[in-house]
Amino acid sequence: MGVKVLRRRELTFWEELYIPQIFSGLRITSAHFFRNLFLHAAHSVGALTHRAASATFQYPEQPRPLARRFRSRHRLTVREEGTPRCVGCMLCETVCPARCITIVAGEHPDPNVEKYPVRFDIDLGICVYCGYCVEVCPEDAIRMDTGILDVAAYSRDEMKLDIHELMNPALRKPVVECDLKFPHECRHSGGEIKGSWE
């Protein structure tokens, strides 16, 4: 087996100085700068408002529009009576490549429903937002369409969502304890956590 040696071609004097490339980069940067400067000045007097002044979105004041199929924070869908549609089949837990879903199934009091999740936790700190759990669910019980993007927390424990937060995506803090089996409307009131079937 022979080895073929490839030799680089010698750079010319101007290529070694990189001056043409520097001026080319400055030309592109200056064109963007003066275009945005002109459009921002025009926007300040109310002209050319139909054209965006720059590609930068001033988040959170100006949120970027999300695509319809964008995968954001998870949620569990509920039935008409407020119970989760999840039947505890463990498919989402099995297919999850990050192993961030934990389900504990139990017998449902309704004979028409075989099982229900006693516990359903998702650890967003290790979730890769692949969407496999949504695709594999036979009951359409889990979705990633909340549009909630801010999942930052001060500790790793705050990144874990329990069944209460998954059924109520608007909750910001984890609901530690509710005395109901399906507290789909857990909310903070008067300093304590309340839940209701209403």
TrEMBL record:
Cofactor: [4Fe-4S] cluster
Positions of the 4Fe-4S ferredoxin-type domain: 74-106, 118-147
EC numbers, comma separated: 7.1.1.-
Chain residues that bind [4Fe-4S] cluster 2: C96, C127, C130, C133
Gene Ontology MF terms in the entry: 4 iron, 4 sulfur cluster binding; iron ion binding; NADH dehydrogenase (quinone) (non-electrogenic) activity; quinone binding
InterPro entries according to UniProt: 4Fe4S_Fe-S-bd (IPR017896), 4Fe4S_Fe_S_CS (IPR017900), NADH_quinone_OxRdtase_chainI (IPR010226)
Gene3D superfamilies: 3.30.70.3270
UniProt enzyme class: translocase
Subunit structure: NDH-1 is composed of 14 different subunits. Subunits NuoA, H, J, K, L, M, N constitute the membrane sector of the complex.
Function as written in the Swiss-Prot or TrEMBL entry: NDH-1 shuttles electrons from NADH, via FMN and iron-sulfur (Fe-S) centers, to quinones in the respiratory chain. The immediate electron acceptor for the enzyme in this species is believed to be ubiquinone. Couples the redox reaction to proton translocation (for every two electrons transferred, four hydrogen ions are translocated across the cytoplasmic membrane), and thus conserves the redox energy in a proton gradient.
Protein's name according to its UniProt entry: NADH-quinone oxidoreductase subunit I
Organism for this UniProt entry: Luteitalea pratensis
